[in-house]
Design a protein that fits this description.
Helix content is 71%, strand content 0%. It is built from 18 helices and no strands.
Length: 428
């Protein structure tokens, strides 16, 4: 098994991790984290979790009444902030993909970004009246943004490289920006007009636009990710790869569109008045990073605590170096310093703890015991605090604390065996 992964799986995974479209997609979502965080905070601040008019008089009711007053006062600003962040997710993703592909191809021009943006707007906004509709600029158009972003960028790039319809104005005293725009007028026209024609053709024959078509196609995959078996299989794969030294981004970067699409749908539903318990999706970006990967991939916060309190000088040193980063879901010092990679003693807990967190959280959220996520505090916020912001449910905080305790208990016997080995080495 080990030899098969090292000789067959690892080279493929390495190639995937360096694949230009996956890299562009991963970088795009990393760039957008501030927008998701700001939008999430705005939505949380204007959405008190309890209606104070239905509560018994007391201290808690006073807090909720004050929160509601704050929400009423700030909502003209914060509601607008929310509406231009997460509900425009797909537009930003289309731009981000184009920008990162420009970096990949070393293209120093703004034109591909404008071409990609206009192609996405055409594809996502066309309706029966052939007028602009922004309904698919949110998470519902995310897969369209990825598909159209890549296709329109590559088509424009090839046309420019082949000098199709090139109008050469260089060396005639024309500003470089004007030479670039006028010189590539024909490629721009071809991409934009072709996009409009194909989308109009699609609408004429199917009466639905491209985002609706892609949503129908992607629904089986979305459903496969957003269920308990999907959580188990994906988490186990991620951790097996990590044990062999293959970074989790090989899988998680490909999952980002599903995670953020589900998060966007939950945020939109919550903003429209749906209760947090009744949101459509369980598996989202905050579900994965704030409830499953507590302390980083492998849910290693509990392990960092064990290392910090170890009798072994070596392990205790690693614990001192890794504990603070682990609070913020950064666990490379622990993975490479303990180490966890290629460590046969720690292999079992390293692989099973994160899937177990996922199963427990999935059952708690799908049963309505804990609210589902609709906001995203960010991947590197201390998990109990992030859980509260992600769900606005105090039971989510209790759940995360319980998961940390469970993680410690699972890691403990294996860590003690590893610690015994290290103590023997130190005595020698």
């Amino acid at each position: 098994m080990s030899q098969f992964i090292e000789t067959k799986v690892a080279p493929v995974a390495t190639k995937l991790s360096s694949q230009k479209y996956l890299k562009a997609l991963q970088s795009t979502f990393l760039f957008l984290i501030p927008f998701f965080t700001i939008g999430s905070f705005a939505l949380v601040l204007i959405s008190p979790p309890v209606d104070y008019t239905t509560m018994e008089p007391g201290f808690l009711q006073s807090i909720m009444a004050g929160w509601q007053s704050f929400a009423d006062f700030t909502s003209p600003v914060l509601d607008y902030v929310f509406n231009v962040t997460m509900p425009l997710m797909s537009l930003y993703v289309a731009l981000g993909i184009s920008y990162n592909l420009c970096k990949e191809y070393k293209i120093n021009s703004m034109m591909p970004l404008l071409v990609t943006m206009s192609s996405f707007i055409i594809s996502a906004s066309m309706n029966a009246e052939r007028t602009l509709s922004f309904a698919a600029f949110d998470a519902t158009g995310l897969f369209t943004a990825i598909f159209v972003g890549i296709i329109s960028f590559e088509l424009y790039r090839v046309l420019v490289e082949k000098k199709v319809g090139r109008i050469n104005l260089e060396g005639s005293g024309v500003p470089p920006a004007l030479a670039d725009s006028i010189g590539n007028l024909v490629p721009v026209a071809i991409v934009v007009v072709l996009t409009a024609f194909l989308n109009n053709l699609l609408f004429t024959f199917t009466s639905i636009n491209l985002p609706q078509v892609i949503t129908i196609i992607m629904n089986p995959l979305v459903s496969a990710v957003d269920n308990i078996w999907g959580v188990i299989i994906l988490a186990v794969l991620v951790m097996v790869f990590w044990w062999f030294g293959i970074h989790d981004s090989v899988i998680t970067s490909a999952l980002d569109p599903f995670f953020y699409s589900n998060l966007g749908a939950n945020a939109a539903a919550f903003a429209a008045g749906t209760a947090a318990m009744a949101l459509p999706h369980v598996v989202t970006a905050p579900f994965w990073w704030n409830f499953m990967a507590i302390g980083g991939s492998g849910a290693t916060l509990g392990l960092a605590f064990l290392a910090l309190t170890s009798k072994s000088k070596q392990l205790r040193t690693i614990g001192k170096l890794s504990f603070i980063p682990s609070l913020f879901n950064i666990n490379e010092p622990l993975i490479f310093g303990l180490p966890l990679m290629y460590n046969p003693i720690m292999m079992i807990p390293f692989i099973i703890v994160m899937p177990l967190n996922g199963v427990i959280t999935y059952l708690a959220m799908s049963s309505g015991l804990v609210a589902k996520t609709f906001a995203y505090a960010s991947w590197n916020m201390f998990s109990p605090i992030a859980a509260l912001i992600d769900t606005m449910d105090i039971k989510a905080v209790i759940l995360v604390i319980a998961l940390i305790i469970i993680d410690i208990l699972i890691y403990l016997p294996f860590f003690k065996a590893f610690e015994k080995q290290k103590l023997a080495e130190e005595e020698e």
